[in-house]
Amino acid sequence: MCYHSSSAPAFDVNTATPARVYDFYLGGKDNFAADREAGEKVFDVFPDAPRLARANRSFSLRAVQQCVNTGVDQVVDLGTGIPTSPNVAEVARAANPDVRVIGVDNDPVVLSHQRAEASLGGYAIVQGDVRRPWAILADPVFNHVIDLSRPVLVLCTAVLHFIPDAEGPERIIRAFTDAMAARSFLALSAVTSSDTDPAVIAGIQDAYRNATAPAIFRPAEHITSWFHGLELLRPGVADVSQWPGRIGFPTTVRILGGVARKPSAYQP
Ligand SMILES: C[S@@+](CC[C@H](N)C(=O)[O-])C[C@H]1O[C@@H](n2cnc3c(N)ncnc32)[C@H](O)[C@@H]1O
């Protein structure tokens, strides 16, 4: 099944984007000189960035597998990124061939690649900006694929650290958790400032200074607060390489991830 939404905006090869820099970390080919320059600057202070990016991807896929295995058959992948293999749809379908998956992103390169993949069938992609959650929730394609009256997994990994406080990451999460049915899941990950050398944080923030979005590091308690009103699955919010209870590896920069379920007695 393949659905297409509105056209992508023009893109600028001279300005690094989070999606293309991430693609560079993961060894992909869908990045330009400006993205590689930003990525190299990150490597100067954090050479382990590719390993952390792979650990984050792996966390996303484990969260999808776990939630689909519990019976959830709809997945919303916010900030889906440039396709990797395996992707969210492939992992979800391996757990349930009838699962419905929709990816959302605002990066034209992501949209172009994901539309090509989606045309092969199995999932849908819509252009959307998570800073405008109500527009995503009202999108006709979104509503054709996803039935919010039934449980859904909302996946939002490595996205909210590109959203400054002034643009309301809490408001974004809240819009989706309020809209989703009881027994739905939220899985998210974000880079943390906790236990991290401020000089390394400053170096990474500098690398993203001229990108389309800044890199925002938040304390672990702040990231945990995004799960307010939901029931965190064990082990709670943890380093992505360690979730769920795996023996991970330490890195000087940390991405924290968690998965939580919306209870029937949800109180926002
Ligand atoms: C670091 S990549 C993460 C990709 C994937 N979620 C993962 O965890 O592997 C961040 C993604 O979020 C997307 N993104 C960033 N800001 C966004 C926004 N305001 N609206 C929609 N997508 C956004 C980027 O385009 C990019 O594809």
From TrEMBL:
<protein>
    <submittedName>
        <fullName>SAM-dependent methyltransferase</fullName>
        <ecNumber>2.1.1.-</ecNumber>
    </submittedName>
</protein>
<dbReference type="InterPro" id="IPR006764">
    <property type="entry name" value="SAM_dep_MeTrfase_SAV2177_type"/>
</dbReference>
<keyword id="KW-0808">Transferase</keyword>
<dbReference type="GO" id="GO:0008168">
    <property type="term" value="F:methyltransferase activity"/>
</dbReference>
<dbReference type="Pfam" id="PF04672">
    <property type="entry name" value="Methyltransf_19"/>
</dbReference>
<dbReference type="InterPro" id="IPR029063">
    <property type="entry name" value="SAM-dependent_MTases_sf"/>
</dbReference>
<dbReference type="GO" id="GO:0032259">
    <property type="term" value="P:methylation"/>
</dbReference>
<keyword id="KW-0489">Methyltransferase</keyword>
